[in-house]
Design brief:
The protein is α/β, with parallel strands linked by helices. It folds into four domains: 2-40 and 296-326, no CATH class; 49-277, 2-Layer Sandwich (Beta-Lactamase), CATH 3.30.450; 336-497, Alpha-Beta Plaits (2-Layer Sandwich); 508-756, Alpha-Beta Barrel (TIM Barrel), CATH 3.20.20. Helices cover 51% and strands 19% of the residues. It is built from 28 helices and 27 strands. The strands form six sheets. The chain has an eight-stranded mixed beta barrel with strand order 18-19-21-22-23-24-25-26, surrounded by four helices. The protein has a six-stranded mixed β-sheet with strand order 10-12-13-11-16-17, with helices on both faces. Helix 9 (274-284) crosses helix 10 and helix 17 packs across helix 18. The chain is rod-shaped and about 190 Å long. It binds ligand C2E and calcium ion (2 copies). One calcium ion (CA) is lined by residues 663-664, 684, 720.
Length: 757
């Protein structure tokens, strides 16, 4: 199971929240950009519409100015000319409601004027005025001047009734006319309701002057004004024309009070739905959209900025997520073993510390730490290679994972060592049950690359709080117990006991001393003679190593040989012994001292080293020793542990002429089949059987059958540890003539040998 800093739920929440934030930020940005752009856009549309309005109003100004200029320059103005000119304009400008001309009539000319007009065909013509009720009456009040309507187009029923209406002397117009007359400009007078039409009109007023050159003062202009052009426009119609050009916008107009310019600014729009409208606009008003696209804050950059910021935000979220998950994988890596994916020692310790922090809150009596080591795993590596060894470890881990309850924490300590943490069990029996379960599990053969491997494990157990109050002590003690289990012959378990670590410390010290001893050559050799029991003749000698350490104490081989075996130091030690022994043997031979065959103990580990045979041959050659004079002793147990492995090497040795003897015979459960195949020449009956001779029936039987076996396989036989004459007699009587033991001699120093023989 992956161990995670954040639970899945928390991580999902974090990612979900950050995406939510992303969306909100994006949304805010979108709205900001949208409204920004919308304002710009509205501004643009407003400007365009305002422009249109100004253009239209400008046209009217232009038209009225042209009309008045024309009037000033021509002498041929009459109602039909006026009508022609006006109707052309009325057709083209829908919003022009009326085009009117007023002529100035001074009071003294009034009657003559009225007379002239009537003669001209306007039968009832008179200069009229309009009262508060909007009734048209004949003007009776005397004014200094009048400005009656003399032309009006279109000349329909509604308008022709205004013929003769003096607009000058009205409250509404007088100031506008005066202003126009004074300045010569087009004056706009709005908000005029024309009778019957019921519409609000806006009037453009432009004076006409007598055709004299310099009108450079106000006074001259007022004096020379001879009429006014009026164009009445319907502003509603004007707007509706514009509206028609912008069908997508709900343009509303508001009432205005002063100038047309103000009115143009009071054009409003409803909400624009930006994306929809932009395409509508594209279709109908390329001009507008073009301007928009060319604008600094155009659509492209808006979308681009939005996109980039969203990508950056998404990227930040992704980077954050990768960072977090790499932290998680880092923690996973730091707490798990690459090869087996089991938890590692670090994780094991972490979990243990959690457990002891909580220990007092539980009813548990102890927490057990199991230290498991695969037996002889090194041999697997040596024989099949490390890759194969790794596969074995993976298989073993899988077994642990799939078979053991997941309440139990299994970790790999490194190499072929595993740790198990077990709590919640309150009696030793349940731990033993688990251990048996594990040993049973491991004992089921593993099939790998067509090999069937039979593994065993050694297990050490320590208990919290009895065997230590922290994980380091508990691991150390479980390790110590495991070592004791190994010493006890492997494939077993041991609970930690107080003196175990002391034993191990001693062992460790000894190991270091031994290393130094080999380096410094603190070894001497003893030779134990072997005799022919029938005639007491010397037939050979066994070389036995002695260690005198720095303090001058002699350390017994039983103490250091097994340790040397376990640690591999035996290889160098035996090479040292071999060299000394062969050298000594050659020396004695040169002195014509016949020792018989020299027996040297050979560790199986030594045998397996690649260069052993080469080195051994080289030694014999160097000291000119015949291989037939040398015998090598291999213990039965070591030999039978892996007979196939040894066979080839032993064959080489045998072919070279070396005699091979099986040491401690009877203790190692030899397979007869192998015994037949191995190139051996001698069996050495173990001391433990000799001890019981001649009274113990079992030993008698065993010794007799070993001798018989040797005979039938055509092998030589020797007995070791013969201490008394009864033993010797028995052996000789039963056909084992060769005798080694204290009865004849203890292992002797070189000098003692030389003195005795
Ligand atoms: P081993 O090969 O079985 O050697 C015989 C051991 O029995 C020797 O003990 C010897 O002193 C002892 N012994 C011989 N006769 C008698 C007897 O009548 N009574 C008693 N009580 N003991 C007797 P040692 O020298 O202590 O050696 C112990 C073991 O150490 C040897 O057992 C051998 O397995 C190993 N060993 C000794 N030297 C070497 C060596 O150079 N190389 C290797 N690989 N192993 C060695
Ligand atoms: Ca021996
Ligand atoms: Ca022996």
């Amino acid at each position: 199971m992956k161990q995670e800093i954040f639970t899945k739920k928390v991580r999902i929440n974090i990612v979900a929240t950050s995406f939510l934030v992303l969306i909100i930020v994006g949304w805010i940005q979108y709205n900001y950009q949208y409204s920004h752009l919308k304002n710009k856009f509205h501004g643009k549309i407003e400007n365009v519409i305002k422009q249109q309005l100004m253009n239209d109003l400008g046209s009217i100004k232009g038209i009225i100015s042209s009309l008045s200029s024309y009037y000033q320059s021509t002498t041929e103005m009459n109602s039909s000319v006026f009508s022609t000119l006006s109707n052309g304009l009325l057709d083209n400008y829908r919003y022009i409601e009326a085009i009117i001309f007023l002529t100035i009539v001074k009071d003294e000319e009034k009657e003559i004027f009225e007379e002239d007009m009537r003669e001209d065909g306007h039968y009832n013509f008179s200069i009229n005025t309009i009262n508060k009720n909007r009734t048209i009456l004949k003007s009776t009040e005397i004014k200094s001047k009048y400005a009656p309507i003399i032309y009006i187009e279109p000349s329909n029923y509604y308008l022709t009734k205004y013929y003769g209406l003096d607009l000058y002397n009205t409250m509404t117009f007088k100031s506008s006319f005066d202003e126009a007359s004074k300045t010569g400009n087009v004056i706009i007078k709005d908000n005029i309701v024309m009778d019957n039409l019921g519409k609000e009109m806006t009037f453009f007023i432009k004076p006409t002057y007598k055709n004299i050159t310099r009108l450079d003062t106000e006074k001259k202009r007022i004096e020379n004004t001879n009429g006014f052009y009026l164009i009445a426009i319907n502003i509603e119609k004007l707007f509706s024309d514009i509206k028609e050009k912008f069908p997508d916008f709900n343009i509303t107009t508001t009432k205005y009070d002063s100038t047309i310019e103000n009115k143009a600014q009071s054009v409003f729009f409803d909400e624009l739905y930006f994306f929809e409208k932009i395409s509508d606009l594209e279709r109908s008003y390329i001009y507008i959209t073009k301007q928009l696209y060319l604008n600094d804050y155009n659509l492209v950059s808006f979308v681009l900025i939005l996109f980039i910021t969203m990508v950056i935000q998404a990227l930040l979220v992704v980077i954050w997520y990768i960072n977090e998950s790499s932290k998680i994988t880092l923690h996973y890596k730091a707490t798990h073993d690459d090869l087996t994916t089991l938890a590692n020692r670090t994780y094991f310790k972490e979990q243990f510390n959690k457990k002891i922090n909580n220990f007092n809150n539980t009813n548990n009596k102890f927490i057990a730490v199991l230290f498991i080591d695969i037996d002889n795993f090194k041999d697997i590596n040596d024989s099949f290679g490390h890759k194969f060894g790794d596969e074995v470890l993976i298989k073993v881990s899988k077994k642990f994972k799939t078979t053991l309850s997941n309440q139990i924490l299994i970790s790999r300590n490194g190499g072929d060592e595993f740790l198990i943490l077990m709590d919640g069990r309150n009696n030793i029996e349940s731990i033993v049950d688990l251990i048996n379960e594990i040993m049973e599990l491991i004992s089921q053969p593993i099939t790998l690359k067509s090999y069937n491997l039979h593994l065993t494990v050694s297990i050490g157990v320590s208990l919290y709080p009895n065997d230590g109050n922290n994980i380091d002590d508990l691991l150390k003690n479980a390790d110590a117990a495991m070592y004791i289990a190994k010493d006890d012959g492997r494939n077993t378990f041991k609970f930690y006991q107080k003196n175990m670590t002391e034993e191990l410390m001693e062992k460790l010290l000894l190991q270091n001393e031994l290393k130094d001893a080999i380096q410094n050559d603190e070894f001497t050799l003893n030779y134990q003679p072997q005799f022919d029991g029938r005639n007491d003749k010397l037939v050979g000698m066994e070389v036995l190593v002695r260690w005198t350490n720095k303090n001058g104490n002699t350390v017994a081989p039983v103490k250091f040989i097994p340790l040397a075996e376990q640690t591999g130091l035996i290889i160098n030690l035996d090479r040292l012994v071999m060299k000394k022994a062969i050298k000594q043997f050659a020396e004695w031979k040169n002195q014509n001292f016949n020792t018989g065959r020299l027996s040297i103990n050979l560790s199986i580990k030594q045998l397996k080293t690649e260069d052993f045979l080469e080195i051994f041959k080289e030694l014999l050659t160097r000291y000119n020793v015949n291989p037939r004079d040398i015998e090598l002793e291999v213990t039965e147990g070591a030999l039978m542990d892996n007979p196939l492995d040894a066979i080839a090497k032993l064959d080489d040795l045998s072919n070279f002429g070396i005699n091979l003897s099986v040491d401690d015979f009877g203790t190692g459960y030899s397979s007869l089949a192998y015994l037949k195949k191995l190139p051996i020449s001698k069996l050495k009956i173990d001391k433990s059987f000799v001890d019981g001779l001649p009274d113990h029936n079992d030993d008698v039987a065993i010794v007799k059958s070993i001798i018989a076996l040797a005979k039938s396989l055509n092998l030589d036989v020797i007995a070791e540890g013969v201490e008394n004459i009864q033993q010797r007699e028995f052996l000789v009587a039963n056909g084992c003539n060769k005798i080694q033991g204290y009865f004849y001699a203890k292992p002797l120093k070189k000098e003692e040998i030389e003195l005795t023989f």
